[in-house]
Amino acid sequence: MSSTSPRESAPYEPDASFAPSARGAGAEAATDRIAAAAYVVDEATDAALRGGLSEFLGSLQIRRGGIRAAAKAMESQMSPRVLIVDVSDVPDPVAALDRLAAVCAPDTKVLVIGERQDLGFYREVTRHLGVDEYLAKPLTRDSAASLIGPFMAGAEPDRASSRGGRVVVVCGARGGVGATTIAVNLALQLSESTQGHIALLDLNLRGGQTAIMLGARPGPGLRNALEHPEDVDALLLERVAIPIGERIRVIAADEPFDTDPTPTAAGITSILTLLRQRFNVIIVDMPMPPSPADRQALLLARQAVLVLGPDVGSLHNAEQTKRMITGLIGGGRTLTVLNRADAPGALKTEMVTEGLGAAPDVIIPDLPKPLSQAANLGQPALRSCPALRRALAPLTQEISGIAQRGKGSLFRRLTGR
After folding, report:
1. Partner of 314 at 20 to 30 A CA spacing, among 4, 135, 152, 302?
2. Strands 281-285 and 303-308
3. Quick check: pTM over 0.85?
4. Average pLDDT in the 29-44 region?
């Protein structure tokens, strides 16, 4: 790895750094050099790497043991082009990184995963030790894909393009599987757990249910903005965004069924660009199958949530839908949610897993009574259904990167990691 800024006022002086001038051992070219290796200490981090870097698993060796195992291995073998090390199992991560630097090739890209979330530690390891990237736990598939994926592909993350709020698209494998219910309650839980500003954009311009589920009435303006992007300006939010509490806004329409809205890709881009400037996360309730204009939202998305039911129709469509999403935003960014699991007469979860070829990332149990009552009252089910809150927690954590309920750390809020 290349060196960075000098140590001007560091509280300690390491024995080595990840700088070409500081390392000589193992720097010779080797024909049997592996492309990438990761040394992790827990199953969750292993799973996040495998999920977020699925397209690179053919060239990535994932091993257990953390940074100590990595340093020991580098003593006897050529270090890979990309080396991912977990420092969460050592009492002094900086000392461990010093030891690793002494045996690591100068051109190796070193990416560190750890539990420290303070900005001081992040700056110390990336600026003074020369580490290429630091990711705080819990590692998510999204952070693995967006921050480690570019290094795996031989590049580096595009920092400029990642600025602004993240777009998360929620779509159903077929109609009626509960994608809107998931989108609404996910937005609420994200707001609670991160204390961030959340926008909920409903692209179902006719018959959309997001506003109704929250007891709100959509106003005019969204259709015109999507059809005429030149009309999109900062005042749009004042006209169309419906406040739901202090930190959530719903942007929806309620067009008559005898009309034919024609949203444009440019209109969706303009709306999402504006929302990313004002909100930390934008949840998009996506019509399925998406129109050519709707696909623009997928192209701008960091993640997609694919909701399916325990039925043959969902399984049939899920494969095609996931393939379409992967083609637009890449692998490792789609989260599958099985809704209404083990409902009477439905396919068993084991059969759904077999049909998908993998277990769903999130499983929501069948909750017909509380969800129906909430929808009829225009109140979020999350507030009256603890079972839904518990089931959504893994999805919320994966999107927010925050393990516990409550305000995110300064490190996460400033760096977005």
Report:
1. 302
2. unpaired
3. no
4. 82
